[in-house]
Amino acid sequence: MGREIVSAEENLQQRYNDSVSSYPQTPMLALNHVSFVCTSLSRSIRFYVDVLGFILIKRPSSFDFEGAWLFNYGVGIHLLEVENVPVKKGKINPKDNHISFQCYDMKRLIRKLENMKIEYVTAVVEDGGIMVDQLFFHDPDGYMIEICNCENLPVLPLSSCPLKLSSPNNRSTVPSTSYVDRSSDIQCSIEVARTAMLDNLISNMMDISI
């Protein structure tokens, strides 16, 4: 029984690896910008400049509609002024659609929001002993903004994460109707994954040098 469980998990991991490797390379470079419609261009510009530190940049002169381009942190924000924007602003819900920015001083940003009378909520995410602080608030039109120190959390592809198997003796007596039901048993070992990724990097560098 134990070997059957291991084989099932190995087969699932192999199918995932095969599906990823079969995808053609996508010739993309990076996130360029996000675009929002807004009811007041000047108000939204002030928000993204004063609160988030963006700067106004030139937009194409051929555009015949009201808007603005802002840029910072390697990403752009494009604003388009329209008369009727669906009302989005309500209770701050961290699970709502949002854009997220990394921050190196969360307390400083919280003080800034409080000084500007901007409502916000906070949350903390824990994974393997790593703590990530999150801060959520709305822009003037109700779009959700997240600020976090997410750089604390390593970015690990699932294909590099080994499977964590629990002992058959410790499993629940309730039978699983599908393998997906036990997906919580598959967890990443960060240190092992880092080692595997480093080994792959060294191997690739050796291939290049040869």
UniProtKB/TrEMBL annotation:
CDD domains: VOC_like. PROSITE patterns: VOC. Coiled coil: none annotated. This is VOC domain-containing protein. Residues 30-150 form the VOC domain. Gene3D superfamilies: 2,3-Dihydroxybiphenyl 1,2-Dioxygenase, domain 1. It comes from the Eukaryota. Pfam families: Glyoxalase.
